[in-house]
Every structure is written in C-alpha cells, then in structure tokens.
C-alpha cells in the first residue's frame, strides 16, 4: 500500500524573551482549533527554506532571510490518509512586526508551557527539542 508523502516546513520563531510563537488553526481547516508552529506545504520546485520564507510572509507579514533559519529537528508522522515529513527550523531574527494575516490566533508561549496547548500529533514530539534549546 502506497501512502502519499506530504512535506511541510515549520518554524519556531523565538522572541527576545525566549518565547515561541504558535498559531491556532482556523475554523474550516483540518484540525481546526489546534495550535501549531507557523509554516506550510513545500510547493513543487521549492526548498523547505524558500517555502518557510514565503509562508511566514503570507501568514505573519514578516520578512525572514534564509541565513536566519537554523534547522533544529523534524517530525515524521503517519496520519490516516498521508505521511507527514516536517522539518522544524528556529528563527530568532526577522524584519517587521508579527501579525496574523489569515485570521488565525497567535500566542507567544514559553517552551515549557507548550504542552498546555492542544497540537496536531506531528507537532507534539517537537516540544522537547524546544524545551532543551531554551
């Protein structure tokens, strides 16, 4: 049985106080109401870093330079209808003010408080990597 592989790039934006940005999936989307790290699907012909730069501009209105994206870890999770492969990058420097561009809720959260927010199954294993980083 062949399973569709979906490549999604995610970013842990970290502010000067060591908090991580999470976004709540809006109503009408799969897994609505769950909190996740910003990012999105890697389009055909894109590298994960290019995808993140595009997604962060579209979702949050910020400009990120590729050399400010540091790979941290990745998630590999089998959902019922696809397999998700998701590299997680850390970014501490960007231009502009983080603001929701797509009606999603945003929160800056301390890494050791991330478990208080319901997340998609693929995101949960990423939390310990952020806890040890900060």
Explain what you see:
The chain is of the alpha+beta class and 134 residues long. It is built from two helices and seven strands, in the order E-E-E-E-H-E-E-E-H. A hairpin with a 4-residue loop joins strand 5 and strand 6. The longest helix is centred in the middle third of the chain and has 13 residues, at 48-60.
List keywords for this structure.
single chain, 15% helix, three-stranded antiparallel sheet, alpha+beta, 134 residues
Instruction: Please count the helical segments.
Output: 2
Main beta sheet: 4 strands, mixed
What is the count of β-strands? 7
Cα-based radius of gyration, to the nearest Å: 14 Å
What's the rounded overall pLDDT mean?
95
Beta strand %: 25-35%
Helix content: 10-25%
What letter string, H or E per element, gives the SSE order? EEEEHEEEH
Low-confidence stretches: none
Q: How many angstroms does the end-to-end distance come to? A: 41 Å
**Based on CA inertia axes, which overall geometry fits?**
globular
């Amino acid at each position: 049985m062949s399973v569709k592989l979906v490549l999604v790039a995610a970013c842990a934006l970290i502010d000067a106080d060591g908090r991580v940005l999470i976004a709540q999936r809006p109503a009408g989307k799969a897994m609505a109401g769950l909190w996740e790290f910003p990012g999105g699907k890697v389009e055909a012909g894109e590298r994960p870093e290019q995808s993140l730069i595009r997604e962060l501009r579209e979702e949050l209105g910020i400009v990120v330079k590729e050399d400010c994206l540091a790979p941290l870890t990745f998630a590999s999770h089998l959902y019922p209808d696809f397999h998700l492969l998701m590299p997680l990058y850390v970014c501490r420097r960007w231009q502009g003010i983080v603001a929701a561009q797509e009606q999603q809720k945003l929160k800056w959260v301390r890494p050791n408080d991330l478990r208080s927010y319901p997340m998609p199954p693929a995101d949960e294993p990423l939390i310990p990597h952020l806890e040890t980083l900060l």
